[in-house]
Amino acid sequence: MGAAAGVQRDFIPRRATPRSGAPRLKAFEVATSSPHAAFETNYRASTSFLAGFELKRRRWPGRAHERPARSVLEEAHGIDSTRFQLVANHLNREGIKAVRPQTIVFHDVLKPIPWAVVDRAVEETGADDDRRCIKTRGHLIGMLHAQLTGARGLREVETNLKSHASKLPQIGGCTISKSALSDANAKRPYEIFARLLSALMFSLQAGYRRKISDCVRLIDSTSVKLSSLSGKWVTFSEGVCGAKAHIIYDPDANQPLYLMVTPSNVNDITAAKEMPIEAGATYVFDLGYYDYAWWAKLDQAECRIVTRLKSNTPFTVKEDRPVPPGSSILSDRTGYLPQRLAASRKNPMSKLVREIHVRIETGKMLRIFTNDLTASAQEIADLYKRRWAVELFFRWVKQTLKITHFFGTSENAVRIQIAVALIAFLLLRLAHEANKIVASPLTFAQLIRANLMHRRPIAELLKPPVKPEPKHPEFDFGPHATRAAHRRRILRAAVVMKKAA
Q: CA 477, CA 309: separation in Å to the nearest integer?
């Protein structure tokens, strides 16, 4: 039996039920010079023929020639089974093409993420060495899902991910328990998310080709309140805990360029001294960055400075320039700041500078300071007015991405959540630029939140879903069809003609 089975695998005839025995008998009439070779040839041919016949008798008829219904169709109806099999294969292929795979909206939002940067950072930091913890990719996708859906707690994040468990593998995610997510936020290195944020910022900036002298940089910070459980590292005063996010913002590209997270008791100028300086750019900031030494550092890098002077800061006037009548510009003067500071220290910003008095809509007068002696006073005033763009950015992020409620209390968890919030902001910006279905970024974010896990293209979110009509396969056997099939075909044609009439 074993020998016969071996012969069956190696030498199965293509036609198991030959209509004539002549072709098969030719194998027995092979002429050889040796009688042993002739006997061996005849034995192999006979065993292979018997194996094919046994396969036909024991198993499904026609299995040997790879068409199970051939004998039934030929003997009962006289139909060419070869033609029938080709039609069936063609229908199967068309059926596969008819079901077009649709990606999830969340998958389209995640497309701009440079996963190579994430994998490189994971390899360098060893963040995925512990097999008991969730992987970095699943951690990042889970946190982004929480940001885009506005989840307010770990339990809500866990429930949302479980409700879409069947769709998460398509985007590289997975379900995460609240304890696993809490451990990942506390232990996974923050540098991985910081590198990803920097890569996305760079990719957005690459699309804006401008001269460095035309680049405007807004510097500001915003505070976020934390619970008393975070008091070990962010205690500001008795019973008050919080953190600060220091941002360099580009108002032309509407995106952040730099992020630093510190406890709320860290002064703004302390964080600004650690920020990178772009030589030749224009820096606009408020009174929180009042430091002559830092101003002198920016001036040495040939940066243009636009900020405010305190009301009690003396200013020695050298020239009083004319101002256009009827405008908000009250005065335009050049002069010098105090040459000496406290404890007889020399002022490092002792060069010729400029002071412009501007009256705003509320009636308040502002003393605007700049080291640009050539630009018009109105241009300087407009540059300082652009500082409100970063305030609008902070309000948008806090209202849309919900960074006012944190999933962890440790410093690492707070840093990760703020970085992921900015990553979500940049991903929404990129998706909005690629799909201009609405004009407002806030409306676009709300639209993405409502359809995040739906299987629809982003460009068709505002269109009604199209339901394709199911197409059933129809077999037309032509003259070989039965009388009942002819009657059914005539009735169907009559119904169609009646509807058309």
A: 92
